[in-house]
Amino acid sequence: LERGRPQLTARSRHDRVFVNARGGPLSRMGFWKILRGHARAAGIDERVHPHALRHSFATHLLQGGADLRVVQELLGHASVTTTAIYTHVDRAYLREVHRTFHPRR
């Protein structure tokens, strides 16, 4: 990425995060194809979709200690209620938070 991306995007007039092999904007279907290939290579059998990346981004930020309002801003949501939909908390994390903050530790 450090070497290849500058070469790919040097002549482009856009600021896309994801680019194709020619440096142009990566199409929606192109992104799906790449994501599906990586999921398959990782042994993930369930259907993986690009929007799952937003959900995992929000969840990992919160589990890392980020404030919900900060995550809201990063995702560009008008309402914190929408942001809460994006966050998924697993049981292990719930137990850890309970052990850490409950007064009867």
UniProtKB/TrEMBL annotation:
Signal peptide segment: none
Keyword entries, A-Z: DNA recombination
Molecular function (Gene Ontology), one example: DNA binding
GO BP field: DNA integration; DNA recombination
Location of the Tyr recombinase domain: 1-99
Gene3D superfamilies the UniProt entry points to: Intergrase catalytic core
Keyword Transport: no
Keyword flag Phosphoprotein: no
Name this protein carries in UniProt: Tyrosine-type recombinase/integrase
UniProt source species: Eiseniibacteriota bacterium
